[in-house]
Design a protein that fits this description.
single chain; about 500 residues; alpha+beta; Alpha-Beta Plaits; four-stranded antiparallel beta sheet; 4 strands; about 65% helix
Length: about 500
């Protein structure tokens, strides 16, 4: 959870920092340096800056972390034995610590950490390290790859002569022995002796007792005396019990007849027919018995249990079926809809990550430059549109402003400083001019033949062209406007 919070808040912090520094610097440059006298809607630039800062803070930051990780791992690749092992071990430890950083989510960090641990363990095996630090890495590697025997050997060497084991160490030994199919006789016998002293017979100790019995442990008789009565009392006929009966039958037992009946029953009922080796061992014991015993056992097992056939219970109810479906999904026997969606999402994210890797650093800044250029072109297009609108106004006469033939009209003159097809841009320019102290700013709307509306921004009403032009020159000198057209309007 802590690493997840670091991952989220670090990226949010970097994105906000870039917005408050890089973003404001770009806006300042555009408005105060590049285009100081221009008034336009910069929403597009703000949105572009937001996504750029978000991209750098979230994606680029993670890609930088991955690149650092892979560079560090590459340096630890194919290290000759002549290099100081302490320096290499410290290097591996630094890479392991790096996987806990805010560059990675816990899942990603765990996967990368697993790869490093296996490489670390292989290096320690290569240089023959067996100290406490190495043992911890061997343990981590074993838990990742329990089927690899190279990690088991150095761990087992610790416990060969040690009887004073904690419960966690016992559990670890059981896992190690299970992975090695209980092939280390000395460890098996040591654990069996420990469990005998504690009189501990539970499910996790069963394989140890059976393995000790198979390898003819010196404690075999004590194991039989501890385990066999409990198995017979519970009338057990599972795989472990039958295997134990077969091994115990070789000893002189007071319960020999019961043991023989359990073995014969397992054979006659064909309980373990799928396990051919076990079934053959039961058959071997059964055929060594006399004919009378065999006939009796065959008759007993052949008697049909009519009541069980008539009153057969339903095995699975609705809750059991639901649990079974969930178990099938967990074991990979079937896939849920959400599991499929998750796999697709992971593949898409992986593909996006690969694409992003190819456009890191230099390409990111190139993208920023392209965005700024595009923004400049958009602004230039807006300015050109204004100029075209002014020229159209100069050439086209407003029907309301035409002279009525035969009547003498008085003219007033006004300055048209811009024309927009967007009312938002028009309002922005009007507000800007008023803030700069320009009075008598107003807007005129006219329809074009295409159906669009022109929003024309005009300034002042003058009784002569000379006064209008003098005022216009003052506005240009003050950099309040860049260009204008003189419009003459007739009044009655």
């Amino acid at each position: 959870m802590y690493q997840t919070l670091k991952y989220i808040f670090t990226r949010i912090g970097i994105s906000l920092f870039l917005l408050l520094t890089f973003g404001f610097l770009v806006l300042y440059f555009v408005h105060e340096v590049a285009l100081p006298s221009a008034t336009f809607d910069d929403s597009f630039i703000q949105a572009a800056l937001f996504f750029i800062c978000l991209f750098i803070g979230v994606f680029a930051y993670g890609l930088v972390g991955e690149q650092k990780f892979h560079n560090a791992v590459y340096k630890l690749k194919n290290i000759p034995s002549a290099v100081n092992s302490e320096e290499v071990v410290d290097g591996f430890q630094a890479v392991l610590d790096f996987t806990y950083s805010s560059y990675f989510l816990p899942g990603k960090g765990k996967r990368l950490r697993g790869d490093v641990i296996l490489k670390f363990a292989n290096y320690l095996l290569f240089v023959g390290r067996k100290d406490d630090r190495a043992q911890k890495i061997y343990l981590k590697a074993f838990l990742l790859r329990p089927e690899d025997p190279s990690y088991r050997a150095p761990l087992l060497s610790i416990f060969k002569e040690d009887d004073d084991l904690t419960s966690e160490e016992v559990d670890l030994l059981l896992v190690i022995l299970k992975a090695g199919d209980y092939s280390d006789d000395s460890i098996v016998n040591n654990l069996a002796s420990l469990f005998l002293r504690k009189r501990l017979f539970v499910s996790k100790t069963e394989p140890i007792f059976l393995a000790a019995l198979k390898n003819k442990s010196e404690n075999s008789k004590e194991i039989v005396n501890l385990v066999l009565p409990q198995l017979l009392r519970a009338n057990r006929s599972d795989s472990f019990a039958v295997r134990f009966y077969l091994e115990a039958y070789q000893f002189e037992l007071s319960e020999s007849s019961q043991v023989l009946e359990m073995i014969a029953y397992a054979y006659c009922k064909k309980t373990w027919e799928d396990d051919k080796a076990l079934h053959l061992k039961c058959e071997e014991v059964f055929k060594a018995c006399d004919d009378t015993f065999r006939s009796d056992m065959l008759r007993k097992t052949a008697e049909p249990n009519l009541s069980s056939k008539i009153n057969r219970l339903k095995l699975l109810n609705e809750n059991d079926l639901r649990l079974l479906r969930n178990l099938k999904v967990k074991m990979g026997l079937s896939r849920s809809f959400f599991d499929l969606l998750g796999r697709i999402a992971v593949k898409l994210l992986g593909f996006a990550r690969i694409l992003a890797n190819k456009f890191l650093m230099v390409r990111t800044w190139f993208f920023i430059v392209v965005v700024i250029l595009i923004t400049s072109l958009i602004y230039r297009g807006s300015q050109t549109q204004q100029e075209i609108g002014l020229r159209v106004e100069e050439k086209a006469k407003d029907p309301k402003e035409e002279n009525i033939s035969g009547l003498k009209k008085t003219e007033i003159h006004t300055l048209q400083v811009a024309a927009f097809t967007s009312s938002k841009q028009a309002r922005g320019l009007i507000n800007s001019l008023k803030k700069k102290g320009v009075r008598d700013v107003y807007q005129v709307r006219t329809k074009r033949k295409t159906g669009e509306t022109w929003y024309k921004i005009r300034v002042g009403r003058f009784d002569s062209k000379e006064n209008a032009q003098m005022f216009a020159r003052q506005l240009i000198e003050q950099k309040t406007i860049k260009n204008y057209f003189l419009i003459s309007l007739s009044v009655n």
